[in-house]
Fold each of these.
Amino acid sequence: MALRLTAKQAAGPLEITKTTGERTISQIRYLLQLAALAAMLSYAVPSSAETIIDEWQNIKAPPPPQLQAVTLDPKTTALIMTDIIKQTCNNERRSRCVASIPKIEKLLTAARASGVTVIYTLFPSRSPATFPNPVISDYIPAVAPKGDEPVVTSFADKFMLGDKDTGLQKILKDKGITTVVPVGVVAHNGILFTAVEAAFRGFNVIVPVDGMAGNGPSGYDEQATAHILTDSIVYKVTLTSLDMIKFQ
């Protein structure tokens, strides 16, 4: 709110033209009072955009995060294949998931050849009558499990299903795993929550940004997930790309 004064008001006590010290002091006090009032009014009236709701249309995405090349020890690394099933990875719902399959398959092949532990995840249905519970045979064939590769079932955090342990922590610890690499869908659910929880549990977490897919074509889910994963002082996650992951 702007404070507007007439010339007469601004002159204040100096409207009387006597130039005594008393008049000068009186003018200074008067002007200081006006300045204080103006400052109070400027703080008392809220700005037109103080919250994220007000500024939503003007928010710009931060610069892309820096991706790091990583070389991992196969003996202590686990690749977590996250919910890459036909119900969630298709052109109608997540075309970027479909586009990422060849590179994920390449990483999976290299991981298996190097002796990396491979773990698969599924999620339970919240309404089995209309959306049957996914099963392991629903996995996209190019990245489907082989042999006795373990499977855990949960919603977003693959370590816990409600208040029950899924067994993922035990699988990792029993195999001496210290680094996990989650890939799959969806970015802002299974990848985000499992990555953060793994970091909280003391694991090194490597997330290939092009190996996670969000909802729809906008790409906002992946961008937001990448930013959240690297913008914390509480946990540490390394972002990379599928082509930047190598095994010793």
Amino acid sequence: MKAQFIQKALENKLVSARKENLRRLSDIEHRLEFVDHVDGIEFINDAKSTDINSTWYSIDCMEKPIIWLISSSQYENDFSLFSEIDTTKLKAIIVMGTDQEGVIAQFKNSVELIGQVNTLEEAVSHAYLVADSGDVVLFSPACSDYENFKHYKDAGQRFRKAVREARL
């Protein structure tokens, strides 16, 4: 009984620490940054997550079904770390970039809905069509996509703009 009490207390401390970390991260531009609610859909800008470890953390922090907007790049083709992602949280993946097939191959057996697009603006539009009220659209690239963006700030600013335009 005492062991269960201690375990529960530790779990509560971990949950509190994670929530505090999320609060702190939300103060950082382009890192789990709330952008907008559109028809009950939450849009989160995580453009600063240009590696799989950062994206893994972002997905792990989400508590709602996720439509994940991910980039792909010819320069980053080691997808082995994707196996660590909890795909039960993913309602859909929308892939953009130059190595879409590599990303799709990694998730085709674990995520039911996977879409391919050419631009971030198309990704936001597709996500809006797929998402239901209560879902999260998470732009977390998981790689540095220099073919489409100058840097992560450019990607994040374009995501914000695309979300604003989705309201229209």
Amino acid sequence: MAFGASPAVAESQIGLYGGWNGSFDSDIHLSQPNGTNMTLNDVPWDGTDGLNEIFLGGQYRWLHERWTPCVGFGVGVSFPHVEVRRTGPNNSYTLEYQLDGVAVEGLVGLEYHLSLRFSLFGDYKLSFSSSDAELNGGGSLETDVWTNHVTFGASYRFGAAPEPYQSYQ
């Protein structure tokens, strides 16, 4: 019995891309030490920053002559920049990054090869983050955030071209 293998192919890619993201409105549950808990409904997140996520994931690509669709999934953690200022006798202020929740993402994308070296691409990703932040002075803040991400751009490959791309000029 004989086994064969093709040689490894080294390829690099550089690209220019842009995009847009936006989050759905969500509820915020605020628990306070003195029992004056509250829920803020349908809080808009547009124009805010501070929701940070790190993912470990995978992506599967179907290599075709010109079109390359892909899907991906990842799981990770969220570490938002928590900013809460309370007034009154406690008068506490929370202004810090916290590692406080799980995050997951799914994506679909498509790449079109203009030539062996140049291509255009776009993808859509939906991410979910569940946060449970501890507040200075006691209490907590809980929320779940869903975010849409759209990315598009162009890329250039250099190095060896993989076999599926060899058939067009």
Amino acid sequence: MTIFLYKCNFDKDASCLTKRFIMNILISWDEKFELNIKEIDQQHKKFIDMINVFYDACICKVPDDVLEQTIADMRDYAFVHFKNEEKYFEKFGYKEAPSHIAEHYFFMENIEKIQEEYCLNNSVLPPKVLTFLQEWFTNHIMNSDKKYVASFVENGIK
């Protein structure tokens, strides 16, 4: 699947990304992902965009430093997004916070392993990395994130 590439942050040696008008897509935003919490939905959309840039970079076989940066960007953004959710969990006394936070830790551990294996060892990223990103993200939104919607809405977050 492809969509029009509307933005690309890669400058050097990423000509296959900057000169094209379409981008390969791993995850397409869908209404089924919507939590109807504007702030969180916007973060999820951005995270999907980052996963798609990573996917496209893998397919295009961009230079190692570009791929390394996309992995680092995903890791950093996931950390910010997770801390934002967790701030609300604490503020609202969300009862399922411990299991939800454990899922966040699981993701962070895996993305750090991916980063370490690729960046430090210059290994080829196996297809299971893309499968992990796709499945973890979609399952997490559809199952875990949907559980906190009522708590957020009860506390005035929409």
